[in-house]
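Hello forum,

I keep getting stuck at the same step: I have a sequence, I want structure tokens, and every attempt I make locally crashes halfway through. Rather than fight my setup again tonight, could one of you with a working pipeline run this one for me? It's a single chain of 304 residues.
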Amino acid sequence: MPKKASVKKTTKKKSAVIKTTAIKRLPNVWQLSQVALSVLWRQRYTILGIVLIYGLVNLAVAQGFSSGLSVSSAKSQLSSIFHGKHLNLGGNLTIYALMFASIGGSGSSSNGFGYSLILVVIASLAIIWAIRNSSNKIGAVRIRDAYYRGMYALIPFIIILLLIGVELLPTVAGISIYISAINNAIAVTAIEKLGFVVLMLLLTSLTVYWLSSSIFALYIVTLPDMTPLKALRSAKQLVKKRRYVILPRLLFLPVMLIVISAVIMLPFISWVAPAAPWVLLVLSLLLLAITHSYLYNLYRELLV
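Reply #2:
Ran it on my machine without issues. Output:
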């Protein structure tokens, strides 16, 4: 009889631990951002070295040493459309959007975008390897090790990226259907337009639902002896019953990056137009590191 009582006690203790773990709250977006930046700062020389090498190779191989979009030319073309201070802001935002959309797409050859994408994958793997070692408190990591040792998961990482590309198709289809309906006068009345908007939002929500798990597979698949299928299953299990808690933290990231980059870029577009494309290039390199640090930190919190 005493033995049974002790078993019951142990069971109660275990259930209490499980219950406590289950109700653990994730850090808010500001806490996640703070930790992400602190990790980057701890390995600042390594991270800066990684993004510097990536930027130089990108300039030499993919983008070329031209400044890309001519901001001065774009401003003169838009000057006839936008007038006054309020509309000048609208013109600058339009130029910023065009510049942001053209990142990695410029260059002397038609293969510029493809080369840029490959370089982003390589730099991402190096950054993830450096961040993981920093988070594990192994100490300072070398740039060479990040590029050499971080590449072992190249093929699985690309496979996950291809799957993410497939998951984006519903959103692309929804936007295409909406634009086609408007341009071909299929949707004329407000109710018809609203119907196509709802359809676009439903298809987009499907993409967001899928991405809320598969985006973490990018970090899981970089673990040793991990296959893409196993990484996807682990990611799905990781976010199980927590998608609605995770989604706001995921959606915050692009909003934060767009706001930060806009705040930095708009003064350059307004007053130092020739330097704006180069500032955006440097900014995009840093934003890549911030993105991976934030998402990896969120992934680590989900493991607890």
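The chain has 13 helices and no strands. If your local run keeps crashing, start a new thread with the error log.
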